[in-house]
Design a protein that fits this description.
The protein has 468 residues and is an alpha+beta fold. The chain has 13 helices and 23 strands. It has two domains: 290 residues, Electron Transport, Fmn-binding Protein, Chain A (Pnp Oxidase, Chain A), CATH 2.30.110; 121 residues, UbiD C-terminal domain-like, CATH 3.40.1670.
Length: 468
Amino acid sequence: MAYKDLQDFINYLREKKLLDEIKIEVDSELEITEIADRVSKLNGNALFFKNVKNSDYPLIINSLGSYERINYGLQVENLDEIAELILDFMDESKFDTLVRVFPKKVKNAACQEVIEEPDLDKLPILKCWPKDGGRYITLPLVITKDPETNQQNIGMYRLQVYDKKTTGMHWHLHKDGKNIYEKYRTLGIKMPVSVAIGCDPATIYAATAPLPKIVDEMIFAGFLRKSPVEIVKCITNDIYVPANAEFVLEGYVDLDETRLEGPSGDHTGYYSLENMYPVFHIEKITRKKNPVYPTTIVGKPPMEDCYLGKATERIFLPLIKVQCPEIVDINSPLEGVFNNCVIVSIKKSYPKQAHKIMNSLWGLKQMMYTKMIIIVDENVDPKDISTVAWKVFNNIDPKRDLVISEGPLDALDHASNAPFYGSRLGIDATKKWLSEGHSRPWPDDIEMSKEVKDMVDKRWKEYGIKET
């Protein structure tokens, strides 16, 4: 059964003893970040802070910050199960079953038990890092509506708090929210925006997923939950929000108003730079009577966002394989912070196929930002970083096997000379063929015979070797 809401998931983590509850007073300025960062690096539990300084609301952080908890959150044994379901639904005869997970509109909602004038100072919003430009709402589900199609979009864009009623709206150049904003500017009208804070794990994840524009995140959340997301119309605009959200911020973004936003410690492990971004004006806050404030921090990996990124890697692999069926598996190392490195194993059947895969991946929506793509043969596990490194260090001729491509980069990339654009590297670490211009014999990997391995396995205890 799907989690009813965030608090239902918190109770589940409590039952599983995957939740540490902190009763003493803690400060939302830097202290919670330092605690959560240490716990993340130790692969520790979710953290529930019951007493946050200057706020009446408890705070949950790191709720999805492990492979175990992201699996529990999406209610699977492993994330590849979702990939298999997506493959199943790609059968056109099964499209009609998606109707069962369409959002369900309701009139009475827990997220509107209390309706009040905006005052962000009451929320335990974190200042995460010492050089941050201010406090940031870090797990917001930013909901907008396309003025041409009336289709809603959900994205996750950090919100820097300016005062009790306004925040920055940090949507990047390539994001759907930014594209919808430009449509409102063309029409000459302010843009209604609602922000849900605190939903069930599937709905939170759906806001981060790189979905095609035609796919509604609420439907995708329902697909993951195997149950429709209940939604309710906002008080001040026509946007529908998850009915069981903990908080909802209702407001608008004006046409040409911008304000300096940043710097902010980001998932790259570096501070993203200051820049001008639109301003979100909050007109009402609605909430539950007894809400919990969810948040996250980003910085040097591993952190909670790494596991959300891993969910995307596994869930969307089948769709990548549809376009590139020779792909066997993919791994985005946590150190690559989503966009800086992806390792791909392929079943190679023709010359320079690795180069074709690089260019195909750079042509996909989210993969276009990937700074480095490493291609290995099908017998290499992309998750085995040591073996991948061995292949890269020994299998490449730089002149022949390195591909440099120019194109879009993540807005947070600080290494390129220009923002949003730069060079990307492809590394072909596959075995080279005569047809690829390699005229010498390619040596075989050194491997012991299976017969000897099996014999040693059987006699291992006889050797009396002390294992450490």
